[in-house]
Structures are given as structure tokens and as C-alpha cells.
Design a protein that fits this description.
It is an enzyme of class 2 (transferase). The protein has helices at residues 15-31, 47-61, 74-99, 116-123, 178-186, 215-229, 261-274, 301-307, 344-361, 385-390, 394-401, 406-413, 430-435, 442-451, 458-462, 487-495, and strands spanning 107-110, 128-132, 147-150, 166-170, 191-195, 232-238, 247-254, 367-368, 374-375, 383-384, 418-421, 424-427. With 496 residues, the protein is α/β, with parallel strands linked by helices. The chain has a seven-stranded mixed β-sheet with strand order 3-2-1-4-5-7-6, sandwiched between helices. A three-stranded antiparallel β-sheet has the order 10-12-11. It is elongated.
Length: 496
């Protein structure tokens, strides 16, 4: 099945797939009784309300796609945050109705990233702010009504939010397991919403201990268990977003009375300490069940906490220090080691050396192209990456080995010149791309049109036979006089 995400976040399959494969699959699925490991989509809120709010927000914030200054896919990120915002607005509206509240809930988004979710929720009347270790370019576009702070959130007494109603962890990475803890210790009334993505424990990467579950399911169970150990009734739901990681966990009520706060907090500390020695009993449960309960849903919070295995020793919590040694917040300056930050001169030299090696490996004989014309353009040979590496000097190889992926990553980054397939590299022939029948998705067509003639053609400058395409059909500029200004730069200047 050939499919792609488009602007509304819906998959549109080909008609041939619908006719040839769907009916047989439906017949097969109708006979199966396999239980899903996840809750059904939007099981905790009104689907009708959600659909209405989502369409309204999508129309209201669709212009963000056109002025997105980040390198990430604008349509995926904008409409995903619109969908998350719609979900939270409905969830909070129903909470106000349930508790008889008139004031809109306040929030703090921990690890807010691009800050779009904070911007939407703030514009919709909810007071709040976002915090992230690294400022994003798009922050300057939101205006003063969107409050975003650049700092590293640490699990300690200095980062509690006693006056905030909800904490949000939207793809919050290393902070994800700490969100329930920070919410629980901020105040008895503080709630939380987390959308786990990358797998982190309290002190680093999460290590699997269950081969019978998928890694994603096991990690969701772990984050759920954290919420339960902190004294929350944890609920699970699946969002309607264009992402494979779309299960959220919500803690909006406690399993214990406020008078037992000190006792429960003592047990929270014991649970957190237990993760350093991995003294936790993993248990299989159905999707969406309350993972605190082993056999009796009427147990008290104290009894539930007692069911968990903890070490004897305790760590005294110091409000001025980290709650668990070993936690490291993300660096403010993100280390990029995918060859993208290598000096341009160094990259150009490697590209030219590899291209010359491929071109000199063999001289192709003239042959007829599909359109009947004679091919006299030298594409060179295809060589294994290992053989290519042997022709590079030691200093170049040493420098490349310090980057993730090394030589292969550098060659893939220069996709205008090379193709890397099954461990072999060859010169790219752009005529083959023109002959391909596959139609790219709308977003790729639009991005391709925006990038048209914004970079010089490598083949026009360096290849002994020039470019295999004419100036009219080549997406790159044949000379500086053909260069166009990047549309992204134009958008940023227009916004400023």
C-alpha cells in the first residue's frame, strides 16, 4: 500500500488497493478476536465535540504552515499540535463541568519545543507558559501573549508549580517520567497530561525488561506505573494525530486523601530510588486498565504503594537539590553529529574525491536511452562503501568517524550527487528521476517547487560531461544567473 500523510492528517489509499486488497482484509479481520493493546481513539472525550473544535482550530491556525521557519515538517507538526490542543480543550471543558468550575485551567508545558501548543492554548483563553532548554526560531513569531521560557527543567524543589492546574509533557523526552512526580509534589490538585515518545527512565535511557510486550507498550506501562506510585488514578487514551506514538496518559484525580500526602510522598521517594536498581515487578495488563491495581480496584493508595517492591534505604529530599542523582537535562546547545556541521570546504573536497573515484572506475560505453537518444554521459561505476573509504586519507576518515554514520551519512546528505543503496555508492542520474512514474505527495511537490533553482547544480560545475539534464528541466541552477532566493527566507523576512 502506497500512502502518505497530507495536510488534514488523513491517509488516502489508492483505489487499486481498495479494490484488490481491502475487501479480503476486512473479511479476515472480521473473523479475528485479537484484543488491541491500546485503547480506542478518543475514548475519554466526546468525539463530536472534538471534531468540531479540531476543525475550528485547524482553520484558525492553518496560516502557521505557510510561515513555519523550523526545519521540521510544518504540516505534520502544526496539525498534530492543533489536534492535541483540541483534545485538551475538550478534556478541560468537561473537567470544569464536572467540578463546577468557571475559570479556565492554567498550565505549564514542560519541554515545550516549538511552543505551538502553548501558543494555541494561550490564545484559546487558558493562562500558561512553556519551558524548554533551547529557544526555537519560531518563538519570536508568537507575540508577547505567548509566554515561553528558555531554561533547563530539573526534578527538584525549585521546579514545582503550586499555583498551576495542569502540567503537560508533549514528547518531553527525559522529563516524561518526572512529569507525574512534579505534578504530585506541586500541589494536591495539580493534574498532568503526558504524550510519551522517546523512552527515558528517571536517570537515563529506559531499559526493556519484557520481551512479551512491544517496547512502546512496556514504556507506556512504566509511565503509568510512575503515575500510580505518585498517587494518581491514571487514564489512557489514543489521540487522533499523524504519529505512531499517539497514546496519552492522564492523571486528574488522586487515589488518597490530602491528609496522607506526607506518607505518599515518602513512598514516591522510595519508588524513584528503586528505579536505580530496577527493583520493579513488571506485570501484564490490558490496555487502559489502572496499572496500580493488581487485584482489587478498591484498595487505598497506601495499600497499592505497599504492593510495589522498594529498597529499604531512603533518600532524603532536599528542596535545593536533584531528587535523584544521575539525572541530566538535555544540553542547551544540541550536539549535531550527522555531518551537517562539518566545514563546507571539507565536505566539498570529500564529495569531489568520491565522485572522481567513481567516474574513473569505469568509462561507460554509449547506449540508447528509453527515449531513443544516445547516452554519452558518464555515470561512472558503483563501488562498495568500504572500497571508497580505503581511497580516502587517514585524517579524513578519522574526522568522518567522529560523526554518526560517517562516510555513508555524508554521501547521503549530498543526495544531489550520490545514491547509496545496499552499502554501495554511485553517481545519481537525474534522468531516472524524471522517468519515474510515482507521483510524490503534495507536501513534497510543494517543498520541491519552493527549492527549485535555489542551489547550484554540482554536475554543471564539476562533471566532465556537465549536467545530464537541460537547464529547463534541472531543479538546480546552471550558473549563478539562474539562482532564486529560498522561499523559506522570504517567508521569515515577510513575518519580521
Amino acid at each position: 500500500m502506497n500512502e502518505s500523510w497530507v495536510s488534514d492528517g488523513i491517509v488516502y489509499p489508492k483505489t487499486t488497493w481498495l479494490g484488490n486488497e481491502l475487501l479480503s482484509k476486512l473479511a479476515k479481520w472480521s473473523l479475528e478476536q485479537k484484543q488491541s493493546e491500546f485503547k480506542s481513539t478518543l475514548s475519554l472525550i466526546s468525539v463530536a465535540k472534538y471534531s468540531k473544535i479540531y476543525q475550528e482550530l485547524k482553520e484558525k491556525y492553518k496560516e502557521m504552515v505557510k510561515v513555519w521557519p523550523e526545519v521540521t515538517d510544518p504540516e505534520k507538526f502544526v496539525y498534530e499540535d492543533v489536534a492535541i490542543a483540541a483534545y485538551l480543550l475538550i478534556l478541560w471543558e468537561e473537567e470544569r463541568a464536572e467540578k463546577g468550575l468557571s475559570k479556565k485551567q492554567s498550565f505549564v508545558d514542560l519541554g515545550c519545543g516549538n511552543g505551538l501548543l502553548v501558543h494555541i492554548l494561550s490564545r484559546e483563553g487558558h493562562p500558561g507558559k512553556g519551558i524548554d532548554v533551547r529557544r526555537r526560531k519560531i518563538w519570536d513569531m508568537y507575540g508577547p501573549q505567548t509566554h515561553l521560557e528558555e531554561c533547563a527543567v530539573k526534578p527538584c524543589g525549585s521546579y514545582l508549580f503550586p499555583d498551576v492546574d495542569w502540567l503537560i509533557g508533549n514528547h518531553s523526552d527525559e522529563l516524561t517520567p518526572w512529569v507525574p512526580v512534579i505534578a504530585a509534589r506541586s500541589s494536591y490538585s495539580c493534574c498532568y497530561f503526558v504524550l510519551p515518545c522517546c523512552f527515558f527512565d528517571f536517570h537515563g535511557k529506559y531499559n526493556r525488561r519484557q520481551s512479551k510486550k512491544t517496547q512502546y507498550r512496556e514504556y507506556l506501562d512504566f509511565v503509568t506505573q510512575v503515575g500510580c506510585a505518585c498517587g494518581f488514578n491514571v487514564e489512557e487514551d489514543s489521540l487522533r494525530i499523524p504519529s505512531t506514538k499517539r497514546v496519552c496518559l492522564i492523571g486528574k484525580s488522586r487515589t488518597y486523601p490530602s491528609t496522607q500526602e506526607s506518607l505518599i510522598d515518602k513512598q514516591r521517594t522510595q519508588y524513584i530510588n528503586s528505579r536505580q536498581s530496577c527493583i520493579v515487578i513488571p506485570q501484564d495488563r490490558r490496555a487502559g486498565s489502572n496499572h496500580c491495581d493488581n487485584h482489587n480496584i478498591k484498595k487505598s493508595a497506601v495499600d497499592k504503594a505497599a504492593d510495589l517492591e522498594f529498597p529499604e534505604n531512603e533518600t532524603k529530599i532536599d528542596d535545593s537539590g536533584i531528587w535523584l542523582s544521575g539525572f541530566r537535562p538535555r544540553e542547551k546547545v544540541e550536539q549535531v553529529r550527522n555531518c551537517a556541521t562539518l566545514p563546507r570546504d571539507f565536505v566539498d573536497d570529500v564529495v569531489l574525491d568520491v565522485a572522481n573515484l567513481l567516474l574513473s572506475a569505469t568509462q561507460e560505453k554509449p547506449c540508447n536511452l528509453p527515449d531513443g537518444s544516445l547516452n554519452t554521459w558518464n555515470r561512472g561505476d558503483s563501488l562498495p562503501l568500504r572500497e571508497v573509504a580505503e581511497h580516502l586519507d587517514k585524517e579524513t576518515l578519522k574526522r568522518l568517524k567522529s560523526e554518526y554514520g560517517g562516510l555513508q551519512t555524508l554521501l547521503k546528505n549530498n543526495h544531489q550527487v550520490f545514491e547509496v543503496i545496499n552499502g554501495r555508492v554511485q553517481i545519481r542520474d537525474w534522468r531516472e528521476k524524471k522517468q519515474a512514474k510515482k507521483t510524490p505527495p503534495e507536501i513534497k511537490r510543494r517543498l520541491s517547487a519552493e527549492a527549485f533553482k535555489t542551489r547550484l547544480c554540482w554536475f554543471f560545475i564539476h562533471h566532465p560531461d556537465g549536467c545530464s539534464l537541460t537547464s529547463e528541466s534541472c531543479p538546480y541552477a546552471h550558473g549563478t544567473e539562474e539562482l532564486r532566493q529560498s522561499q523559506i527566507l522570504k517567508k521569515i523576512k515577510h513575518v519580521q
